Amino acid sequence: MLEPFAYPFMQRALMGGILVGFLASYYGPFVVQRRLSFLGSGLAHAAFGGVALGLFLDMQPLWVALPFTVLVAAAIVWVGHRGRLAEDTTIGVFFAVSMALGVIFLSLRQGYTKDAFTYLFGSILAVTPADLWVTGAVALLTCCTFPLWGRWAYATFDRGLARSDRLAVLPHDYLLTIAVAVSVVVSIKVVGMVLVAAFLVLPAAAARMWTRNFAAMTLVSMAIGTGSVAVGLVVSYHANLPCGPVIILTQAAAFGAGLAVRRPARG
Fold this sequence. Notes:
By secondary structure, the chain is mainly α. Helix content is about 80%, strand content about 0%. The longest helix has 26 residues, at about 10-35.
């Protein structure tokens, strides 16, 4: 069972996947409970625009994608608060604009853009020590947000009551969305833009099937998000299949199992 992890590249893949699983599945319950599942996909596509800009400027894509995606995340909250559009519509606007900019930047770049495909589809088996350091640093920063979890949860379930209790809901919305954006940027290098949205949503959705309160949902989501990485890597190694999709299908299996055992709501 542990045979695949005798190889250093598999060890790095496991560590990188666990870190990404922790990040995505910690923020996932907020995304799912606030009905913002499209946010992960929108920010991933915004990150692609930043990656393309970095490639066009011949700079390290991650360091360009990070501020680019953070600005898009802040703009999504700002437009959603000041405009008359639903949040999913606002996300869709920035989703389209970021992708269009990304395609334009790539078209202006001369030569083959191999790095762009790495960020699009991910390469968990190609995780480097530098990737682990960056992802680990973001995971450590995420741990610093634990004291804010209660306030974020309060605003998630009843924004009106949170405001009446003088909770600064809007600043916390900015902080939460930006934290998700940073996590998405570092995650796409490992699992790819195509899969990061599912990685953000599936563990939380599966946990929602298995739990009855938000605290338990968060813990179970983190367990599924990190545990599915180890299971997915082992299965993909023995079945000779791509790692990223197998990890996602493992999470989907947890969701399907929860859906099968969950009692239907009384109507």
